[in-house]
Inverse folding.
């Protein structure tokens, strides 16, 4: 299994998911076809389950997103949180600028909707 | 030259609204994903120059994205009436206006969703919003009003809309959203 690396564009984020368990989604996410963009990521996480490292850390560092992306983030957060049931350590971090309360709210809304626990960090 | 008299009248009406002092962006014509991406970048640059706080800029970008994606996904080009999208300011208040042609069936759904969202008690809105997302499914054909819900939620319910009969079975859907520094969306 290889790392999953997708470079950012004007409408989609940088994705850097390493088999070591360090995962990052960073930037803007407003693709026209959200399923097409995020399905390789959820497929990759399904494959990771067969070679799970002891710790998986997912970091979101997001500028802004559309509603379909929020939905995709809920699915990704749930999938990563489910690794806990396999005895692994899981951490989901939401990074935001200190003066951007709306970005913090966005993270909290996704945390609540996905029924997972996020750690919030100021950039 | 705008040939459609109804759209001409509508744009004339918008340009005379006292509540908008400065226009940051006006788009009338064809909309697609490339225009959406450029429009959001331009809005961000202008809001930074106008010294709007980071949280207002984030909120505005999210609302504008949803309004523009609604137009891109649901436009009815065969009517010959083109959509518009306008962002204007009045001191620290932002007005975001959009208009596009929709079918009668879309009108029924949109009206029902917006009326439902606007009436939700402010204190209950956040739990309503997160529950709606929790129970939704990712789809590219629309998210059963989640885009509209996002707009109403992020603007703290500062949303007005109008439906006007323009042609047999087609309606002009005009959306007027206000964003100010007090609108927290939560």
């Amino acid at each position: 299994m290889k790392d999953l690396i997708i470079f950012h564009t004007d409408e989609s984020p940088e994705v850097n998911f390493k088999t070591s368990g360090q995962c990052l989604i960073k930037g803007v996410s407003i693709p026209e076809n959200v399923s097409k963009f995020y399905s390789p990521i959820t497929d990759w996480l399904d494959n990771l389950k067969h070679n799970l490292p002891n710790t998986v850390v997912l970091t979101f560092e997001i500028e802004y997103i559309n509603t379909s992306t929020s939905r995709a983030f809920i699915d990704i957060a749930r999938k990563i949180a489910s690794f806990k049931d396999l005895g692994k350590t899981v951490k989901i971090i939401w990074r935001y600028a200190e003066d951007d309360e709306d970005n913090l709210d966005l993270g909290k809304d996704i945390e609540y909707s996905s029924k997972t626990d996020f750690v919030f960090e100021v950039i | 030259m705008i040939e459609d008299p109804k759209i001409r009248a509508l744009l004339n009406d918008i340009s005379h609204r006292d509540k908008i002092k400065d226009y940051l962006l006006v788009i009338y014509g064809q909309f697609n994903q490339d225009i959406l991406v450029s429009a959001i970048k331009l809005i961000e640059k202008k809001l930074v120059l106008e010294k709007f706080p980071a949280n207002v800029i984030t909120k505005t970008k999210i609302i504008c994205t949803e309004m523009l994606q609604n137009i891109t996904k649901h436009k009815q080009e065969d009517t010959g009436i083109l959509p518009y999208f306008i962002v204007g300011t009045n001191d620290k208040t932002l007005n975001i206006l959009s208009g596009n042609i929709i079918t009668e069936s879309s009108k029924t759904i949109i009206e029902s969703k917006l009326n439902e969202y606007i009436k939700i008690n402010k204190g209950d809105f956040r739990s309503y919003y997160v529950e709606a997302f929790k129970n939704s499914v990712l789809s590219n054909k629309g998210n059963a009003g989640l885009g509209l819900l996002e707009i109403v939620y992020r603007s703290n319910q500062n949303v007005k809309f109008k439906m006007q009969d323009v042609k047999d079975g087609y309606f002009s859907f005009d959306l007027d959203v206000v964003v100010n520094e007090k609108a927290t969306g939560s």
